[in-house]
Fold:
Amino acid sequence: MSSITSTLAAAVVAAPIAATQPFVLPEMPYAYDALEPHIDAKTMEIHHTRHHKAYVDNANAALEAQGVTGKTLGQILAEVSKYGAAVRNNGGGHYNHSLFWNLMAPAGKGGEPSKELLAAIDRDLGGLDAFKKAFADAAVKRFGSGWAWLIVTADKKLAVVSTPNQDNPLMDIAEVKGTPILALDVWEHAYYLKFQNKRGDYIQTWWNVVNWNEVNRLFGEAIK
Ligand code: MN
Structure:
């Protein structure tokens, strides 16, 4: 196995919350055109090299300005209210996108929800179809910019939530807290080039590139 392949494999399994300061833009786990025709290459390239990179750079700068060093991303998110808007927005943006890239895979390569995950979806969310509808509703009804999430709560139950801007359910300021196992970016920068104002079409298309193998893995970790 080449060293590049090893590095990429390691990047895929590394938990974004374990990253320590200063934060770095992660390698993508696939090529920018790998999600075509569902998510276009130009959107993926701009999203990663400009938007995500800006969150990383701005988070590092805001933390440095406050003299914050030696913390993990997870620690910072758990006490994000201490650090002000720049860290909340950019530290959140870095975590959210690091997770998001790994939660997508080329169509046909992402596997299926595991038996264990399906059982939890049946128990807590009324079945796979009801879950997908609730998740799409959370995504389409988020006013302005934000994210839809499938999380595991402290009592090990599944819940569908949404957050504004670059907030996430790991933050101390989150309305509903939990461990994210699936995430969908509904900022216009995630879909506007291909879908323009049709956020609902983007969401329906996005199901084709969900990396269920990674969702299954994160679910297993979260219920331990
Ligand atoms: Mn984004």
User: Anything to note?
Assistant: The chain has two domains: 3-102, 115-222. Residues 1-13 have pLDDT under 50 and may be disordered.
